[in-house]
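Predict the holo structure. Ligand: 6-O-phosphono-beta-D-glucopyranose.
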Amino acid sequence: MNPHPLASDDVRPDPHVIVIFGGTGDLAHRKIFPGLFHLYLANLLPERFRIIGVVRPPAKGSNDDFRARVRDAIVEFGDAKPDGEEWEAFIAAVSAVAADATHPATLMDAVESAERELGEGARRLYHLAVPPDATLQLITMLGTTGLNANARVICEKPFGTDLASAKVLNETIRANFDETQVFRIDHFLGKESIDNILALRFANRLFEPLWNRDHICFVQIDVPESLTVAGRGAFYEETGAFRDMVVSHLFQVMGYLAMEQPTSFDAGPLRDEIHKVFQTMRPLDVDNVVRGQYQGYRDEPGVAPDSTVETFVALRVEIENTRWKGVPFYLRTGKGMAQRRQVITIGFEEPVMRLFPLAKDAQTWRGNRLVVDFDDPGSIHAHFLAKEPGPVMQLGEATMSFYYKDSFRHAHRLEAYEHLILEAMLGNRALFTRSDGIERLWEVAAPLLEVAPEVEFYAQGSWGPTSMERIVAPHGWCLP
Ligand code: BG6
């Protein structure tokens, strides 16, 4: 079996011209620029690189203004201070250009001149941190201008809003890029703890033999968020929690949890196995979906006063294969909830012979579960039953825990976006989603998109509408 690509020390990419479309946007400020600076400090950017931030005309692409904005973004959202010699060297490689799909000339000049400066062998990396309609136009522009040559392109979600629109997007991409050039980013797949699911399962005989319907009674992927849609009302009206979080992130995490062992961790075999999970998912049953909306959502700027968009969704998903038939996968996420958490819980069946008396109403899985907390910095907890000290055989819940922050690799940690931008520069598509997988997920989602259940209201700071309990019966939600 091939080792994981990051097992190698040789992770320095070829020289690159990195072009960020949406250079003054929220994503560029929160994630991309702080991430690029951290990669630079970690010696993981190419030895020779240029970064071009694209701003939409008529805004002027003044380098000084742009660099000042990048600096402010790193102060606000980055871990490392933008000071000193290293900062000066990094920011000197950053410039801005005003261009868009209909005015590409300035960008073409900028890319060419950056390539001349870098010399032979420079690659192009485009990061499309822009809304969906702009993505389509930019992809076409990159194709028709020839800027697609020797290039890789990172595309941001949403990858369509249903099967038909996903197909249009994929066809546009295919008409302008070879699939090997395309990196559809789902930043949950760049999180250390999600990558670690592969290690947890396939490097440890302690877990993998139990990882099936004979031993597991349910799987929960629970991602409550305490933040509201704050400032993103208009975006949320177009997407809602199901498209924003479930299709993009939670289904992908489910793919990692449910897949068979790939023959290697290369993009081909790894993504084939994830795809097989998506193929064996049953189309969603709307009776197993609860949609919620937090009270006050309709007062957010950009939100319709009678909006029926969901800010919360809980659902039960079934995978029809030999490993998982009959094991429910419970997924939940929402905005304005009681806590921010990102938790996977694997609930185990009770032993075949029950030798120990159970307290009335006790749920055996509570004392017998594996919990992966995948919000950074991440941790893993095995909850099991142990004998409480004393003369009688009485059981109590005990826990074995692993914390990334205390682990030997923690200092090498890359934030999800950093990890994925690096992988894209290295040309490794293993941690990126695939067009056929995305189309399959929209197919699975079709019943819900056609006839969505009514939204139910929930108070901000709560765990969601009360009817979500029926989704997880008889098990119950593991949080809080
Ligand atoms: C984004 C969603 O993709 O992921 C947001 O659009 C969500 O709505 C965010 O809040 C969660 O990501 P993170 O980095 O906080 O795990």
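Residues 225, 244 surround 6-O-phosphono-beta-D-glucopyranose (CB under 6 Å). Confidence is low (pLDDT under 50) at residues 1-8.
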